[in-house]
């Protein structure tokens, strides 16, 4: 059978994760990592077919308003309370190649900084027209867009007077399971970014900068909604210089 | 000739301009359920009221039905009550349901991906799935049947990849290239789910004496 002869070519493998760019498992200022951080280094493996393949979510699974948090939980004719914003950008891999047709999920607190979740007991009120989750599938250029209200900052128990900067959580699938990533998007100019122990789990300033969306006046719709731009990069596949192809590969 | 060189250089410059580091990870936080399992989070009716990945098999799916139950615990034995666990696996014949699977066409009635929240009282999870077939390692050697796991939660800064092997596949486990790579028998055992009358039991330790082996893939 051909199966046993199967070999993965270098071009199919993912570039190894830079674990100095990502936050380390244990980050003392973020107390929740204390007992949830593995102490052994992860065991390095070659990519297998399980890592370069991944679940495929068709457009049939996604409703027309799933990406629109302004209305996807609201009563008919109603809309969530808060600053109306859209967030858009491109999903690419480390080689600059667009990642199309993949699922992005996002979730966030409401404009007052309160999550619709049984464990969130913050004083700020819930908004009956805001659920706080959405999802979309990237188009052929890797582009995505969501509409929402700007999430409020919120306090969290971490031993001190810690407030999360306004943020949206992103869950990304990519094409291979090895690309699986959950991260957060912040907003340009927020003074809480610099003070946040979760942001500070990332050691390199340039890496933090990758998670900060920029105000985008060009895409802002007059008298309607402000736009923020947020591009996301997932792992790219290995290839040797000069033989790289921008398409396909 | 000069033209080729110019083209190559041009292409290199374009590539350099487009190259970017992977976006850094951030914790999924305690409210990951809102985004990943909204029905579980209490958002009734959201997205049709069915969480993605909550059901893996139907009556047409081929292969031996199995139940995997498990639990995630932290370094002092406290259950992880606010996380999510995802699995990704081959079908009964060892094929993945993905266009990048080049060895053949997988069972169309088996997506191969599942996602469950950990129980908010005891950190447990359950997957109803099928036993996967064997899949080759990068060098072509066959691996023992196994399932890829991925764990995200508050306090986990970068999602954790691991694998579950089957306790009743002793022979295949012995020959498995990845388990052999780990070497240490005590650590190997952290990846092997015990066979029970109900199916398979897989306990994941994030830290401590029995810390599960996690992978950099
Ligand atoms: Fe949050």
Structure description:
The complex is a heterodimer of chains A (249) and B (217). Chain A is mostly beta strands. Chain A has a single domain, classed as Protocatechuate 3,4-Dioxygenase, subunit A, CATH 2.60.130. Chain A has helices at 49-52, 205-209, and strands at residues 43-44, 84-93, 103-107, 133-137, 143-149, 154-156, 162-164, 167-172, 181-187, 212-215, 226-229, 232-234. The model of chain A is unreliable at 1-7 and 240-249 (pLDDT under 50). Chain B has 217 residues and is of the alpha+beta class. Chain B has one domain (54-205): Sandwich (Protocatechuate 3,4-Dioxygenase, subunit A). Chain B has six helices and nine strands. Chain B is globular, with a radius of gyration of 20 Å. The chains are: A mainly beta (249), B alpha+beta (217). At the A-B interface, strand 1, helix 1, strand 3, strand 9 and helix 2 of A face helix 1, helix 2, strand 5, helix 5 and strand 9 of B. Strand 1 of chain A pairs parallel with strand 9 of chain B, so a sheet runs across the interface. The structure holds fe (iii) ion (FE). Fe (iii) ion is lined by residues 164, 167, 169 of chain A.
């Amino acid at each position: 059978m051909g199966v046993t002869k199967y070999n993965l070519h270098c071009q199919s493998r993912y570039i190894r994760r830079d674990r100095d760019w990502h936050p380390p498992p244990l980050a003392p200022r973020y107390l929740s990592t204390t007992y949830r951080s593995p102490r052994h280094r992860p065991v390095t493996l070659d990519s297998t077919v399980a890592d370069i393949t991944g679940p495929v979510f068709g457009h049939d699974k996604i409703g027309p308003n799933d990406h629109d948090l302004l209305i996807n939980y609201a009563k008919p004719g109603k809309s969530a309370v808060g600053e109306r914003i859209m967030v858009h950008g491109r999903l690419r891999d480390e080689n600059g190649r667009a990642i199309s047709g993949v699922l992005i999920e996002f979730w966030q607190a409401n404009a007052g900084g309160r999550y619709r979740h049984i464990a969130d007991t913050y004083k700020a009120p819930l908004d009956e027209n805001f659920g706080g989750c959405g999802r979309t599938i990237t188009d052929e250029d890797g582009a995505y867009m969501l509409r929402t209200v700007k999430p409020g900052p919120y306090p969290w128990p971490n031993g001190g007077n810690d407030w999360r900067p306004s943020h949206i959580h992103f869950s990304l699938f990519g094409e291979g399971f090895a690309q699986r990533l959950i991260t957060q998007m912040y907003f340009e100019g927020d003074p809480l970014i610099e003070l946040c122990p979760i942001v500070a789990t990332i050691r390199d300033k340039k890496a933090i900068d990758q998670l900060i969306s920029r105000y985008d006046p060009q895409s802002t719709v007059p008298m309607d909604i402000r736009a923020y731009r947020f591009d996301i990069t997932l792992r790219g596949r290995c290839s040797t210089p000069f033989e790289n192809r921008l398409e396909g590969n | 000739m000069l033209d080729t060189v110019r083209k190559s250089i041009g292409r290199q410059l374009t590539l350099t301009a487009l190259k970017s580091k992977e976006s850094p990870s951030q914790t999924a936080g305690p409210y990951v359920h809102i985004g990943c399992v909204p029905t579980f989070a209490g958002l009734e009716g959201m997205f049709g009221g069915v969480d993605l990945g909550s059901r893996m098999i139907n009556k047409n799916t081929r292969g031996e039905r199995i139940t995997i139950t498990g639990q995630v615990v932290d370094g002092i034995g406290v259950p992880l009550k606010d996380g999510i666990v995802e699995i990704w696996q081959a079908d009964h014949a060892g094929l993945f349901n993905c266009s990048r699977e080049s060895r053949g066409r997988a069972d169309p009635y088996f997506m191969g991906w599942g996602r469950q929240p950990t129980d908010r009282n005891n950190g447990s999870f359950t997957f109803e799935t099928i036993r996967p077939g064997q899949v080759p390692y990068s060098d072509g050697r066959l691996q023992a049947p196994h399932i890829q796991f991925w764990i995200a939660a508050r306090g986990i800064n970068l999602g954790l990849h691991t694998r579950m092997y089957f306790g009743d596949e002793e022979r295949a486990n012995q020959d498995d290239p990845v388990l052999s790579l780990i070497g240490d028998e005590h650590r190997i055992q952290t990846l092997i789910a015990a066979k029970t009358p109900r199916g398979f039991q897989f306990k994941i330790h994030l830290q401590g004496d029995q810390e599960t082996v996690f992978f950099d893939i």
